[in-house]
Amino acid sequence: MNDNQPRLPPGQFLTGKFPVLHEGEIPEFNRERWGFRFFGLVEKERTLDFEEFSGLPMASVKADFHCVTTWSRYDNLWEGVLARTIAGLARPRREAKYVLIHCEHGYTTNLPLEDFLREDVIFALKWEGSDLTREHGYPLRLVVPHLYAWKSAKWVRGVEFLSEDIRGFWESRGYHNNGDPWSEERYSSQE
What is the 3-state secondary structure (H, E, C) of 4-58? Predict the structure, then answer.
């Protein structure tokens, strides 16, 4: 977004609420069995347990949130681990150009690596100063503020670095592969 661009993307309405939308059942969190894995085209594959992940350097991001169902919420405060931090641990190989985010129940979403590495993309553990609620992705969700919220996947369990793009759950079911709210990239028929 540039200084001349309106804050509310076209086709969106502003809400102060934080609606709950997701596919499937809300998964149970088991701290002893939970793991976050980074793998694929990386120098170092690894799985972090919850304590290891929670012990990584923390950051805060204040960002607007735009859902493809046409609502937007301003100034959400997210706390967690920047995607850049995860990439720094994984050290993607030169041929890595995309990521596939893996979540509970086999849900996935895809991003170009350059989108994943933006300074405001965060693996959030907290929202507005409190742990995420189960409905909003506890214990971990990815937040990609510059794209529609389906790219901000809930219940994240890992990130796979790839040389070729692989469409995720919604992207393979008719949603736009990119999802830019300012261009209203909602559906694959627009590609």
Answer: CCCCCCCCCEECCCCCCCCCCCCCCCCCCCCEEEEEECECCCEEEEHHHHHCCCC
Q: What would the two tokens of residue 188 be?
A: 């694959």
Written out in words, the top-level CATH class of the domain with range 34-190 is alpha beta
Residue ranges of domains in the chain:
34-190
pLDDT 10s digits, 96-137: 999 999 999 999 999 999 999 999 999 999 999 999 999 999
Task: Assess contact for 141 and 153: CB atoms under 8 A.
Answer: yes
| pTM, to two decimals | 0.94
Contact (CB, 8 A) for 98 and 166: yes
Looking up tokens 């929670």 gives 54
Here the tokens at position 71 are 């609502």
pLDDT tens-digit readout, 36-74: 999 999 999 999 999 999 999 999 999 999 999 999 999
List the structure tokens of 92: 């993607």
